[in-house]
Protein backbone atom coordinates (compact mmCIF):
# COMPACT_ATOMS: atom_id res chain seq x y z
CA UNK A 1 0.00 0.00 0.00
CA UNK A 2 1.36 3.43 -0.91
CA UNK A 3 0.79 6.71 0.88
CA UNK A 4 1.05 9.12 -2.03
CA UNK A 5 0.69 12.75 -1.06
CA UNK A 6 0.96 12.10 2.69
CA UNK A 7 2.10 15.13 4.66
CA UNK A 8 2.58 14.72 8.39
CA UNK A 9 2.16 17.79 10.49
CA UNK A 10 -0.26 19.34 7.97
CA UNK A 11 -2.95 19.57 10.65
CA UNK A 12 -1.28 17.78 13.53
CA UNK A 13 -0.42 20.93 15.46
CA UNK A 14 -4.12 21.09 16.27
CA UNK A 15 -4.27 17.34 16.71
CA UNK A 16 -1.57 17.21 19.36
CA UNK A 17 -4.09 18.45 21.91
CA UNK A 18 -5.79 15.08 21.70
CA UNK A 19 -2.59 13.30 22.66
CA UNK A 20 -2.79 14.62 26.19
CA UNK A 21 -5.73 13.01 26.43
CA UNK A 22 -4.25 -24.65 15.29
CA UNK A 23 -4.98 -26.36 18.01
CA UNK A 24 -4.84 -27.57 21.59
CA UNK A 25 -2.93 -30.60 20.43
CA UNK A 26 0.25 -28.60 19.85
CA UNK A 27 3.02 -29.86 22.07
CA UNK A 28 4.25 -27.80 24.99
CA UNK A 29 7.67 -26.20 24.39
CA UNK A 30 10.76 -27.90 25.74
CA UNK A 31 12.38 -25.94 28.54
CA UNK A 32 16.07 -26.05 29.17
CA UNK A 33 19.39 -24.34 28.89
CA UNK A 34 20.17 -21.73 26.30
CA UNK A 35 22.84 -22.38 23.72
CA UNK A 36 25.29 -20.17 25.63
CA UNK A 37 25.03 -22.43 28.66
CA UNK A 38 22.87 -20.20 30.84
CA UNK A 39 20.68 -21.92 33.43
CA UNK A 40 17.23 -23.34 32.90
CA UNK A 41 14.90 -20.86 31.23
CA UNK A 42 12.64 -19.57 32.55
CA UNK A 43 13.26 -19.77 36.27
CA UNK A 44 11.26 -16.64 37.21
CA UNK A 45 8.35 -14.61 35.81
CA UNK A 46 8.63 -12.99 32.38
CA UNK A 47 7.48 -9.42 31.77
CA UNK A 48 5.48 -8.64 28.62
CA UNK A 49 5.17 -4.93 27.84
CA UNK A 50 2.01 -3.92 26.01
CA UNK A 51 2.50 -0.35 24.74
CA UNK A 52 -1.21 0.56 24.93
CA UNK A 53 -3.67 1.15 27.78
CA UNK A 54 -5.80 -1.81 28.87
CA UNK A 55 -8.99 -2.52 26.98
CA UNK A 56 -8.01 -2.57 23.30
CA UNK A 57 -7.84 -5.50 20.91
CA UNK A 58 -4.06 -5.98 21.08
CA UNK A 59 -4.19 -5.79 24.87
CA UNK A 60 -6.85 -8.49 25.01
CA UNK A 61 -5.07 -10.77 22.55
CA UNK A 62 -1.68 -10.41 24.22
CA UNK A 63 -3.09 -10.88 27.74
CA UNK A 64 -4.70 -14.11 26.61
CA UNK A 65 -1.44 -15.20 24.96
CA UNK A 66 0.52 -14.38 28.12
CA UNK A 67 -1.78 -16.40 30.35
CA UNK A 68 -1.68 -19.47 28.11
CA UNK A 69 2.07 -19.28 27.41
CA UNK A 70 2.78 -18.89 31.11
CA UNK A 71 1.18 -22.24 31.84
CA UNK A 72 3.40 -23.94 29.25
CA UNK A 73 6.53 -22.15 30.49
CA UNK A 74 5.87 -22.95 34.13
CA UNK A 75 6.31 -19.28 35.01
CA UNK A 76 3.91 -16.35 34.93
CA UNK A 77 4.07 -13.96 31.99
CA UNK A 78 3.25 -10.68 33.71
CA UNK A 79 1.65 -7.99 31.54
CA UNK A 80 2.73 -4.38 31.97
CA UNK A 81 0.87 -1.63 30.07
CA UNK A 82 3.06 1.28 28.98
CA UNK A 83 0.98 3.56 26.74
CA UNK A 84 2.18 6.69 24.99
CA UNK A 85 4.45 7.82 22.14
CA UNK A 86 2.27 6.14 19.50
CA UNK A 87 2.79 2.72 21.03
CA UNK A 88 6.60 2.83 21.15
CA UNK A 89 7.22 2.85 24.91
CA UNK A 90 7.92 -0.89 24.92
CA UNK A 91 10.52 -0.51 22.18
CA UNK A 92 12.15 2.34 24.10
CA UNK A 93 12.45 0.12 27.15
CA UNK A 94 13.89 -2.81 25.18
CA UNK A 95 16.57 -0.65 23.59
CA UNK A 96 17.56 1.40 26.64
CA UNK A 97 16.95 -0.62 29.82
CA UNK A 98 16.04 -4.27 29.33
CA UNK A 99 18.63 -7.05 29.56
CA UNK A 100 18.74 -9.62 26.72
CA UNK A 101 17.98 -12.51 29.07
CA UNK A 102 14.46 -13.29 27.82
CA UNK A 103 12.71 -11.94 30.89
CA UNK A 104 11.50 -8.73 29.23
CA UNK A 105 9.72 -8.81 25.88
CA UNK A 106 7.32 -6.42 24.16
CA UNK A 107 4.89 -6.12 21.31
CA UNK A 108 6.57 -5.27 17.99
CA UNK A 109 4.30 -3.41 15.55
CA UNK A 110 4.76 -1.36 12.40
CA UNK A 111 4.90 2.05 14.07
CA UNK A 112 8.09 0.83 15.78
CA UNK A 113 9.52 -0.24 12.41
CA UNK A 114 8.51 3.09 10.83
CA UNK A 115 9.67 5.48 13.56
CA UNK A 116 13.43 5.60 12.77
CA UNK A 117 12.68 6.76 9.24
CA UNK A 118 10.39 9.67 10.22
CA UNK A 119 12.51 11.21 13.00
CA UNK A 120 15.63 13.33 12.69
CA UNK A 121 17.44 11.25 15.31
CA UNK A 122 16.51 7.55 14.83
CA UNK A 123 15.90 5.98 18.24
CA UNK A 124 16.76 2.46 17.07
CA UNK A 125 17.47 0.20 14.12
CA UNK A 126 14.22 -1.78 13.75
CA UNK A 127 16.02 -4.85 12.39
CA UNK A 128 19.24 -5.09 14.39
CA UNK A 129 18.42 -3.45 17.72
CA UNK A 130 15.81 -6.09 18.65
CA UNK A 131 15.59 -9.86 18.84
CA UNK A 132 12.51 -10.71 16.79
CA UNK A 133 10.76 -13.73 18.28
CA UNK A 134 7.43 -14.46 16.58
CA UNK A 135 4.79 -12.92 14.33
CA UNK A 136 1.29 -13.22 15.75
CA UNK A 137 -1.65 -11.49 14.09
CA UNK A 138 -2.96 -8.23 12.69
CA UNK A 139 -5.82 -5.86 13.26
CA UNK A 140 -9.15 -5.32 11.62
CA UNK A 141 -9.15 -1.59 10.97
CA UNK A 142 -12.20 0.39 10.02
CA UNK A 143 -13.90 3.78 10.16
CA UNK A 144 -16.83 4.31 12.51
CA UNK A 145 -19.01 7.34 13.17
CA UNK A 146 -21.62 8.29 15.76
CA UNK A 147 -24.68 6.17 15.10
CA UNK A 148 -27.17 9.04 15.37
CA UNK A 149 -25.02 11.50 13.41
CA UNK A 150 -25.53 12.76 9.86
CA UNK A 151 -23.08 10.30 8.27
CA UNK A 152 -24.47 6.85 7.45
CA UNK A 153 -22.19 5.61 4.65
CA UNK A 154 -18.75 6.20 3.11
CA UNK A 155 -20.44 8.27 0.41
CA UNK A 156 -21.93 10.46 3.16
CA UNK A 157 -18.48 10.77 4.73
CA UNK A 158 -16.98 12.03 1.48
CA UNK A 159 -19.89 14.38 0.82
CA UNK A 160 -19.69 15.92 4.30
CA UNK A 161 -15.93 16.39 4.03
CA UNK A 162 -16.25 18.09 0.65
CA UNK A 163 -19.04 20.37 1.83
CA UNK A 164 -17.24 21.23 5.07
CA UNK A 165 -13.48 21.52 4.41
CA UNK A 166 -11.44 21.28 7.59
CA UNK A 167 -14.42 20.41 9.78
CA UNK A 168 -14.62 16.61 9.57
CA UNK A 169 -12.49 15.24 12.40
CA UNK A 170 -11.14 11.74 12.81
CA UNK A 171 -9.20 10.12 15.62
CA UNK A 172 -6.56 7.40 15.75
CA UNK A 173 -4.24 5.94 18.37
CA UNK A 174 -1.37 8.24 17.35
CA UNK A 175 0.49 10.31 14.79
CA UNK A 176 2.33 8.32 12.09
CA UNK A 177 0.55 5.08 12.93
CA UNK A 178 -0.53 2.84 10.07
CA UNK A 179 -4.15 3.92 10.40
CA UNK A 180 -3.17 7.62 10.42
CA UNK A 181 -1.14 7.20 7.24
CA UNK A 182 -3.99 5.29 5.62
CA UNK A 183 -6.39 8.14 6.36
CA UNK A 184 -3.89 10.62 4.94
CA UNK A 185 -3.71 8.47 1.82
CA UNK A 186 -7.51 8.38 1.47
CA UNK A 187 -7.73 12.15 2.04
CA UNK A 188 -5.04 12.72 -0.59
CA UNK A 189 -6.76 10.54 -3.17
CA UNK A 190 -10.11 12.23 -2.58
CA UNK A 191 -8.60 15.73 -2.14
CA UNK A 192 -10.20 16.13 1.27
CA UNK A 193 -9.17 18.36 4.16
CA UNK A 194 -9.67 16.27 7.29
CA UNK A 195 -8.54 17.09 10.83
CA UNK A 196 -6.60 14.42 12.73
CA UNK A 197 -7.13 14.24 16.52
CA UNK A 198 -4.91 11.45 17.92
CA UNK A 199 -5.62 9.76 21.23
CA UNK A 200 -3.37 7.47 23.25
CA UNK A 201 -5.28 4.28 22.44
CA UNK A 202 -7.94 2.81 20.18
CA UNK A 203 -10.55 2.35 22.90
CA UNK A 204 -10.16 5.98 24.04
CA UNK A 205 -10.55 7.09 20.44
CA UNK A 206 -13.76 5.10 19.99
CA UNK A 207 -15.28 6.48 23.19
CA UNK A 208 -14.42 10.02 22.05
CA UNK A 209 -16.52 9.50 18.92
CA UNK A 210 -19.43 7.98 20.85
CA UNK A 211 -19.42 10.99 23.19
CA UNK A 212 -19.36 13.48 20.31
CA UNK A 213 -15.85 14.86 20.92
CA UNK A 214 -14.67 13.71 17.48
CA UNK A 215 -16.74 12.87 14.39
CA UNK A 216 -15.11 9.59 13.37
CA UNK A 217 -12.60 6.97 14.47
CA UNK A 218 -10.18 5.26 12.06
CA UNK A 219 -8.58 2.52 14.09
CA UNK A 220 -8.52 -1.13 15.05
CA UNK A 221 -11.63 -2.88 16.27
CA UNK A 222 -11.75 -1.44 19.79
CA UNK A 223 -14.81 0.33 18.37
CA UNK A 224 -16.57 -3.04 17.90
CA UNK A 225 -18.40 -3.13 21.27
CA UNK A 226 -19.75 0.37 20.65
CA UNK A 227 -20.90 -0.66 17.17
CA UNK A 228 -22.58 -3.73 18.66
CA UNK A 229 -24.14 -1.52 21.34
CA UNK A 230 -25.59 0.92 18.84
CA UNK A 231 -23.50 3.96 19.80
CA UNK A 232 -21.32 3.83 16.67
CA UNK A 233 -21.92 2.99 13.01
CA UNK A 234 -19.23 1.17 11.02
CA UNK A 235 -18.97 2.57 7.48
CA UNK A 236 -16.04 0.53 6.11
CA UNK A 237 -13.37 -2.03 7.01
CA UNK A 238 -9.81 -2.33 5.69
CA UNK A 239 -9.50 -6.12 5.54
CA UNK A 240 -9.39 -8.10 2.29
CA UNK A 241 -12.91 -9.43 2.81
CA UNK A 242 -15.97 -8.18 4.66
CA UNK A 243 -16.10 -9.03 8.33
CA UNK A 244 -18.54 -11.85 9.16
CA UNK A 245 -19.33 -9.94 12.34
CA UNK A 246 -20.14 -6.69 10.49
CA UNK A 247 -21.27 -7.86 7.04
CA UNK A 248 -22.93 -4.55 6.14
CA UNK A 249 -19.63 -2.65 6.19
CA UNK A 250 -17.88 -2.62 2.78
CA UNK A 251 -14.12 -3.06 2.36
CA UNK A 252 -11.89 -0.34 0.97
CA UNK A 253 -11.42 -2.49 -2.12
CA UNK A 254 -15.18 -2.56 -2.66
CA UNK A 255 -15.22 1.22 -2.34
CA UNK A 256 -12.70 1.53 -5.16
CA UNK A 257 -9.36 1.66 -3.33
CA UNK A 258 -6.79 -1.07 -3.98
CA UNK A 259 -5.85 -1.19 -0.30
CA UNK A 260 -5.78 -3.90 2.37
CA UNK A 261 -4.46 -2.77 5.77
CA UNK A 262 -3.97 -5.22 8.66
CA UNK A 263 -0.62 -4.04 10.14
CA UNK A 264 0.78 -7.39 11.40
CA UNK A 265 2.45 -7.43 14.81
CA UNK A 266 4.50 -9.84 16.90
CA UNK A 267 6.85 -10.04 19.87
CA UNK A 268 10.46 -8.95 20.28
CA UNK A 269 13.10 -8.70 22.97
CA UNK A 270 16.32 -6.74 23.38
CA UNK A 271 19.17 -7.24 20.94
CA UNK A 272 21.44 -10.22 21.61
CA UNK A 273 19.11 -12.77 23.15
CA UNK A 274 20.28 -16.38 23.38
CA UNK A 275 18.87 -18.46 20.47
CA UNK A 276 17.84 -21.22 22.86
CA UNK A 277 15.82 -18.77 24.94
CA UNK A 278 14.25 -17.37 21.78
CA UNK A 279 13.25 -20.87 20.75
CA UNK A 280 11.58 -21.54 24.11
CA UNK A 281 9.65 -18.27 23.93
CA UNK A 282 8.66 -18.84 20.30
CA UNK A 283 7.38 -22.35 20.95
CA UNK A 284 5.36 -21.32 24.01
CA UNK A 285 3.87 -18.31 22.22
CA UNK A 286 3.08 -20.31 19.09
CA UNK A 287 1.22 -22.91 21.13
CA UNK A 288 -0.66 -20.12 22.90
CA UNK A 289 -1.48 -18.36 19.62
CA UNK A 290 -3.11 -21.49 18.20
CA UNK A 291 -4.84 -22.37 21.46
CA UNK A 292 -8.66 -22.23 21.12
CA UNK A 293 -8.88 -19.67 23.92
CA UNK A 294 -6.66 -17.22 22.07
CA UNK A 295 -8.45 -17.95 18.81
CA UNK A 296 -11.68 -16.94 20.57
CA UNK A 297 -10.19 -13.60 21.59
CA UNK A 298 -8.94 -12.95 18.07
CA UNK A 299 -12.37 -13.80 16.69
CA UNK A 300 -13.96 -11.41 19.16
CA UNK A 301 -11.97 -8.56 17.62
CA UNK A 302 -11.85 -9.98 14.06
CA UNK A 303 -8.05 -10.05 14.19
CA UNK A 304 -6.50 -11.87 11.20
CA UNK A 305 -3.87 -14.52 11.98
CA UNK A 306 -0.39 -13.46 10.76
CA UNK A 307 1.89 -16.15 12.20
CA UNK A 308 5.62 -16.06 11.36
CA UNK A 309 8.27 -18.27 12.95
CA UNK A 310 11.42 -16.58 14.26
CA UNK A 311 13.39 -16.66 11.02
CA UNK A 312 10.46 -15.61 8.86
CA UNK A 313 9.46 -12.85 11.27
CA UNK A 314 12.96 -11.41 11.23
CA UNK A 315 12.82 -11.46 7.41
CA UNK A 316 9.40 -9.81 7.42
CA UNK A 317 10.66 -6.99 9.66
CA UNK A 318 13.69 -6.47 7.41
CA UNK A 319 11.51 -6.26 4.29
CA UNK A 320 9.06 -3.94 5.99
CA UNK A 321 11.85 -1.68 7.22
CA UNK A 322 13.05 -1.22 3.64
CA UNK A 323 9.50 -0.40 2.56
CA UNK A 324 9.04 2.13 5.37
CA UNK A 325 12.40 3.74 4.61
CA UNK A 326 11.53 4.08 0.93
CA UNK A 327 8.11 5.57 1.68
CA UNK A 328 9.47 8.00 4.25
CA UNK A 329 12.12 9.26 1.83
CA UNK A 330 9.74 9.54 -1.09
CA UNK A 331 7.04 11.35 0.89
CA UNK A 332 9.40 13.30 3.16
CA UNK A 333 7.58 12.08 6.26
CA UNK A 334 8.60 13.70 9.56
CA UNK A 335 7.04 13.87 13.02
CA UNK A 336 9.61 16.20 14.59
Automatic annotation (TrEMBL):
UniProt-recorded name of the protein: Tripartite-type tricarboxylate transporter, receptor component TctC
Pfam families: TctC
Entries under CDD domains matching the protein: PBP2_Bug_TTT
Coiled-coil residue spans: none
Keywords, comma-separated and alphabetical: Receptor
Family per similarity comment: Belongs to the UPF0065 (bug) family.
Record InterPro entries: BUG, Bug_dom1, TAT_signal
Amino acid sequence: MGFEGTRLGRRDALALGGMALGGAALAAPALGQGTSGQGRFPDRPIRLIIPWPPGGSADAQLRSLAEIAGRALGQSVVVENRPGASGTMGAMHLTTQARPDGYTISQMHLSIVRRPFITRTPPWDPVNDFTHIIGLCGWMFGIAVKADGPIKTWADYLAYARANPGRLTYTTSGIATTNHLTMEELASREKLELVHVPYRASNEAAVAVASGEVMSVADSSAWAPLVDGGQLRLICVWTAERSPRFPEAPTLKELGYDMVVTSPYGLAGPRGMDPGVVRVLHDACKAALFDPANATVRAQFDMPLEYYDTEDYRSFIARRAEYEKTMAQRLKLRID
